Amino acid sequence: MNKKIIYSVITTVILISGVISFNFYKKIFSKAVIKNGAIYIKSNHSFDDLKQQLSDYITKPENFIWVAEKKKFSKPKGGKYLLKKGMSLNDVVNLLRSGKQTPIKLSFNNQDSLEKLAGRISQQIEADSSSLIKAMVNENFLSKNGFNKKSALGMYIPNSYQFYWNTDAEKFVNKMLIEYNRFWNSERLEKAKNLNLSKKEVITLASIVQKETAQKSERPIVAGLYLNRLKNNWPLQADPTVIYCIKQLKGDQFTVKRVLTKDLEIKSPYNTYKNTGLPPSLIAMPDISSINAVLNYKKHNYYYMCASVDKIGFHDFANTLTQHNRNAAKYQYWISQKGINR
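-> structure tokens emitted (342 positions)
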């Protein structure tokens, strides 16, 4: 009788232990994530912040807390993490504790200022625009790497890059310097050398080409024209540089639809009607097609160009001043007929 009782007690204990163990196992290893998604954990997020984010993705948030406590997980690591439907709480805790976040594809096109660039970047990573601007204009960083506040925009090559979402401002800037140096490979450096231009001078000319025409097919022709002028010590007489001067005086939001004769007299080192050679720095961020247009310019004998009235968005090119004057008169008449005075 005593043995039967003992066996019965042991059996009951085993069954209870089995049930408890099974429940523990289910909490830890059974499917808990109900849908695919991404969570973004900020660097200063607490465990409570994490629980709030996970509440939309797991069946029983209280079970996550229990599993996290058992695995001694209390401090989430910042970043973007992908959750897959069917993951267990054990999987989730291991993922968040490991810090194995999923990279993001960060991209930006040609921005006219560091402020606009910072705003664009802050929409894609954790760093805010104010911290980004501070890092971008850091004097020690700029002087160490051969830039200043005017030329700093040229360090950022419009493209798509892989980053971690929780990248801070300093790491972003440092990574972009690496990408800038990678962009300037031996082939591009050799082409710049053949033009007798530095990297920054290529970027500066490319920024003018960028603003001069939106037609990628036309950019090598425009670049060739400006290079012809530079080689012969002619002023570039590029309207985009005058527009840049006007905006420097009146503000970036000021709209310039037509460059007037009086604008050509603005006293500024960026006014290429008043000064020969390239301006001190870029006037906007050029994209890769504009940079490559300079490095792979089209050889020709054009020295003049004017916006075309027959093919809107393109230019009429000329070898002689007489031919150019005819094109310019045609354009001036057309734009006046349109009532565009500024």
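Residues 184 and 199 are 8 Å apart (CA to CA).
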